[in-house]
Amino acid sequence: MTKLQHIWRDGLALYIRFMNYLGAGAGQWFLPLAARFTFVAVRAGYYWASAMTKLSEGIFSPTLGAYYQILPSVTEAAEYDIEAISIFFTPIVLLGSWAEFILPALLLLGLFTRGAALAMIGFVIVQSLTDIWGHGVEAATIGAWFDRGSDALILDQRLLWVFVLSVLVIKGGGRLSLDNWLNIDRKA
Question: What is d(CA 186, CA 74) in angstroms, rounded to the nearest whole number?
């Protein structure tokens, strides 16, 4: 074996050991923490601000805007009169509004992280479908995958949100989370 082959073999072995070490360590604490930080830093303020517009006189009083944002066709059919909207829809609006407060807070704390992330994925999907079919956003806002642009608000950005949340569903809150400290996310 030549000197160059020895250097290559030794260098490759060092690279493999380092990457395995990095992956093993970072996978346990860094990746879940980074995913939680990323979601909270980028999306929590958005959801909390949105939720604030949906509740008026306490946590059981949705605004007209809440009905319109969550159930646009129902609100339009009731001619924007909350009293004309069936009481059946109030729990849906309240749950959607509360989810915008509670789920990002759980992710920030790393408490019930897997469930909160899974629920947040469902929320993002429902939010996207409501934007597309309920509010009829234009094609540029919807976007397309595998195109040259990466700035579409729905398909491009929300896919990234869902990816970050998927990391949390799979990995959990990690070592630096309340799940870990309270022994909630242990292996069975």
Answer: 43
Angle (CA) 108-109-115 rounded to 5° is 85
Under 8 Å between Cβ of 89 and 71:
yes
Using alpha carbons, select from 126, 152, 138 the residue that is nearest to residue 70. 126
Domain ranges of the chain: 28-181
d(CA 9, CA 18): 14
Claim: this prediction has a pTM higher than 0.90: no
Which of 179, 135, 165 shows the shortest CA–CA distance to 43? 165
Where does the pLDDT of residue 144 fall: very low under 50, low under 70, confident under 90, or very high at 90 and above?
confident
Residues sharing a CB contact under 8 Å with residue 182, sequence separation 6 or more, in sequence order = 111
Extract long-range pairs of 49-55: CB within 8 Å, 24+ residues apart.
Answer: 50/100, 51/97, 51/98, 51/100, 51/101, 54/93, 54/96, 54/97, 54/100, 55/97
Residue 188 has pLDDT above 80, yes or no: no
* Integer Cα distance of 142 and 57 in angstroms: 34
Rounded to whole angstroms, the Cα distance separating 163 from 147 reads 19
